[in-house]
Design a protein that fits this description.
The complex is a heterodimer of chains A (380) and B (395).
Chain A (H helix, E strand, L loop, with lengths): L6 E6 H12 L13 E7 L2 E7 L3 E8 L2 E4 L1 E6 H10 L4 E7 L2 E6 L2 E5 L18 E5 H11 L14 E6 L3 E7 L3 E8 L1 E3 L10 E4 H10 L7 E6 L3 E6 L2 E6 L18 E6 H13 L8 E6 L2 E8 L3 E8 L7 E5 L1 H9 L6 E6 L6 E5 L3 E5 L9
Antiparallel strand pairs in A: 1-5, 1-7, 2-3, 2-6, 3-4, 4-18, 7-8, 8-9, 10-14, 10-16, 11-12, 11-15, 12-13, 13-26, 16-17, 17-18, 19-24, 20-21, 20-23, 21-22, 24-25, 25-26
Helix pairs in contact in A: 1-2, 3-4, 5-6
Chain B lengths: L1 E6 L2 H9 L8 E3 L11 E2 L1 H4 L9 H7 L4 E3 L3 H16 L5 E5 L2 E5 L4 H4 L2 H16 L3 E6 L2 H10 L5 E3 L5 H5 L12 H9 L5 H6 L2 H8 L1 H10 L16 E11 L2 H21 L4 E10 L4 E12 L2 H14 L8 E9 L13 H6 L2 H13 L24
Parallel strand pairs in B: 2-4, 7-8
Antiparallel strand pairs in B: 1-6, 1-7, 2-3, 5-6, 9-12, 10-11, 10-12
The chains are: A alpha+beta (380), B alpha+beta (395).
């Protein structure tokens, strides 16, 4: 007769695998603290809570509908267990801890692992705030998708490696920039308590945390996401996840100053056809010459690119424009990034001043994207 | 065909043109009659007294007391240089400037339009004389190596054409020192093997030269045989930018080499900025006294055009990445690769521009433009003698 297990559960494997994928996103692959390469699994009631942290960003993620035979906890080496869950083929998986060893079984497969001590694992914050902003999950998810790509995690200006969240009178503003382009989204929100904490100039959340929030909303788009900004960190409760992250230090640029209040030219565009044209123009560029000339003339937009040793391209697109001819040179990547995240049929206005000034794309009242052109007076 | 166009006593000729009263007198640009400073350029009359560039002015005064000393006007020379390049570009877009006063031109694609290399060379020499009242020498040859030697052969106002079937007979009688990178030390090495003329090199087997000089031996043999595949690369199409210098005497002192690295990094940085380009990696090249040549490279986390970043990377390579062997160096070079021209990208928050392109470089560039590139140097490179002939920038 075997000893009773220290912990035992049965669970829907694809759900556990998906949850591991989300929590694994925070687990560092290289770290001086080896224990952080683990995911902590705690089984209780009919739920399993997975948690992971890289000591800057941490996440707890709850899976419900789990058959828990014996409550308990263990650490699981993230990379290996993720591979196991991915490679298994059966719908059900069992995990049990016996005499300090983990056994993972599914169908005809069985794995035994030696876990590290869960008591050594750093605590991951729980959402215990009573003052916070609440944003519909689907709205926040779209806002993150519309800003996150504009960050620059490689920059020596650390604030550019995150997304700014700034409370305003109407709601929250999310902003991200790598200094070549800027993405700004306004989201409506409700307040519980008095969520006035956080740095005076808004909180800069690391890209990694924003990406986790975005992923954790999946499957819970109709729920509200709670955001509590504090002086040095942020706590977010979204869907089945709780995310705690340190804020990025450093001043976020005064981004409102570079959004022109009005521009002499405003053209109605549709994302899909414009995106197609930009993607075509991108083909004949090289690292050496990335610029594509965007020439606006009556009823027509012409995209022209050429690269030494490669060739040249010319793509035309009908547009509702009847002003003077204007040519602006952009790095097409920054235009494509904006168009890629819009639905094909999304309408927006493209607002221009002249060939040396920033162009502004506006989607409704809530999304503003600013791109700086390439200088046209540069030497060959 | 390749043209090498080299202005004759450029700074001095420009001054003579500006001040006709100087005609027929020895003219020295740079230094002072009191013997301070260094000669930047001397006209041909002054040269007959033994005056030459990079000479201490004190010595020039002793050699030629009646010389007229002039303060250099670099902004004038660089604007004349732009006019000269404009003339080159009438005949071909493939212009590779080596400095203010010399350039390679590949006219192969222009010969149907304007006539053969000789015709184009004559036309350029005439245009520079008629429009700018300045003398130049032109070498016309199938390769860069031969064209450069040819332009130097009959200075001033020289015009030397070397046709493909004449290359070997042209090179054979010339001394080996005409080959780039063959300085006094190499000359001694070669002389010890009984090689004094390029023809002596040519008749050796390539293998024996490789045995004696390593990979560089192969290059020497190729050049002696008129083989030189280097293309004329316009600056803006260059895949890499590098500057190197060959020492008259081997350098054994690390601090002196660091000083040279500082000087060369400044030249590379200036050239990057002039073309609005940034580089992703820094390369250090070293040739030892036995011709062993090594290159070491370092990838930068962020593309840069900042002199200080290029210097730090090259200096680090020099101090930490050299093989364990006696330091005795005949050539050192600093280069950059991974070039891109994103410099044209305007920024919404230009603080970053200050961070990645230190204001000090902009000031240094302005000073170099106005007063010449020796006017401002880093403390480290201060006191270095300019070599008599910097190797041409390799692209």
């Amino acid at each position: 007769m075997e000893e009773p297990p220290d912990m035992k559960l049965h669970c829907h494997r694809p759900s556990l695998s998906a949850a591991f994928g989300i929590v694994g996103g925070v687990v560092p692959s290289r770290t001086p603290k080896d224990i952080l390469k683990n995911v902590r699994l705690a089984a209780e009631g009919d739920t399993v809570t997975l948690s992971g942290t890289d000591s800057e960003v941490g996440i707890r993620y709850v899976i419900s509908g789990v058959e828990v035979e014996k409550p308990g906890e263990t650490l699981l080496p993230a990379q290996r267990v993720m591979s196991i869950l991915r490679e298994l083929t059966e719908e059900q998986v069992s995990i049990e801890v016996n005499d300090g060893k983990v056994r993972i079984a599914s169908g005809h497969s069985e794995f035994r692992l030696s876990p590290e001590d869960p008591a050594e694992f750093p605590a991951v914050a729980i959402f215990d705030q009573d003052a916070y902003f609440a944003v519909p999950g689907s709205v926040l998810r779209e806002a993150i998708r519309r800003t996150l790509f504009a960050t620059d995690v490689e920059s020596t200006r650390y604030a550019l490696g995150g997304v700014l969240i700034e409370p305003t009178e109407k709601g929250l503003t999310l902003a991200a920039t790598d200094s070549r382009r800027l993405a700004v989204v306004e989201v409506p929100c409700s307040k519980t308590g008095d969520p006035s904490g956080g740095p005076a100039n808004g909180a800069v959340i690391p890209s990694k945390a924003m990406s986790l929030i975005e992923k954790s909303i999946a499957g819970a788009e109709d729920d509200e996401v709670f955001i509590a900004l504090r002086n040095n960190d942020v706590l977010v409760k979204s869907g089945n996840g709780t995310i705690a992250s340190r804020l990025v230090e450093g001043r976020f640029p005064k981004y409102r100053q570079v959004i022109p209040a009005s521009t002499p030219i405003s053209i109605d565009m549709v994302a899909g056809p414009f995106y197609t044209a930009v993607r075509q123009a991108q083909i004949v560029t090289s690292d050496e010459s990335r610029g594509v000339d965007f020439t606006f003339s009556e009823g027509n937009l012409t995209l022209q690119s050429q690269a030494a040793d490669v060739g040249a391209s010319k793509i035309e697109l009908p547009i509702p424009y009847n002003g003077e001819d204007l040519t602006i040179t952009f790095d097409p990547k920054y235009v494509a990034d904006f168009l890629r995240i819009l639905e094909s049929e999304t309408a927006f206005t493209l607002n221009l001043t002249d060939s040396e000034s920033q162009a502004v794309g506006r989607v409704g009242d809530s999304y503003t994207y600013v791109i700086m052109p390439l200088s046209r007076d540069r030497e060959a | 065909m390749i043209l090498h166009v080299d202005m004759d006593a450029f700074y001095a000729s420009v001054e003579e043109r500006e001040r006709p009263e100087l005609k027929d007198r020895p003219v020295i640009v740079g230094g002072s009659p009191q013997g301070r400073g260094v000669v930047c350029a001397a006209n041909y009359i002054a040269r007959t007294f033994g005056v030459h560039s990079a000479q201490p002015a004190a010595r020039a005064v002793r050699l030629c007391p009646q010389a007229v000393f002039l303060k250099p006007r670099f902004d004038l020379y660089s604007s004349v240089s732009r006019q000269i390049r404009e003339i080159f570009h009438r005949y071909t877009p493939l212009v590779e400037p080596l400095s203010l006063d010399e350039a390679f031109l590949d006219v192969t694609g222009s010969e149907r339009l304007f006539g053969d290399g000789e015709t184009i060379g004559r036309a350029i020499q005439k245009a520079i004389r008629d429009e700018l009242s300045l003398p130049c020498s032109v070498g016309v040859a199938p390769t860069k190596f031969v064209a450069k030697i040819a332009s130097d052969l009959r200075k001033p106002r020289g015009f030397v054409v070397v046709r493909t079937d004449e290359v070997v007979s042209f090179l054979d009688p010339l001394p080996v020192t005409k080959i780039w990178g063959v300085g006094a030390t190499a000359e001694r090495h070669l002389a010890a093997l009984g090689i004094t003329k390029i023809g002596d090199l040519r008749i050796r087997s390539a293998e024996s030269l490789v045995a004696a000089f390593g990979k560089h031996g192969r290059k020497l043999w190729n050049l002696a045989n008129g083989i030189d595949h280097r293309a004329v690369v316009p600056d803006h199409a260059a895949k890499q930018i590098s500057h190197e210098t060959t020492f008259g005497q081997d350098i054994t002192d690390l601090e002196t080499l660091r000083a040279w690295v500082s000087e060369l990094a400044a030249n590379v940085g200036r050239r990057l900025r002039r073309h609005h380009r940034t580089a992703q990696a820094v390369v250090l090249k070293l040739r030892y006294d036995d011709f062993t040549t090594i290159t070491r490279s370092h990838s930068l986390p962020d593309a840069t055009d900042a002199t200080s970043t290029i210097f730090r990377a090259a200096d680090e390579l020099l101090r930490t990445r050299l093989p364990r062997r006696r330091l005795s160096v005949r050539l050192i070079g600093v280069g950059v690769t991974g070039l891109s021209s994103v410099g044209g990208q305007k920024l919404l928050f230009p603080i970053q521009e200050e961070e990645t392109r230190p204001a000090i470089d902009a000031v240094a560039d302005a000073i170099a433009q106005k007063f010449g590139r020796d006017a401002l140097r880093s403390g480290l490179s201060f006191g270095l003698e300019r070599p008599e002939r910097l190797s041409p920038p390799k692209t």
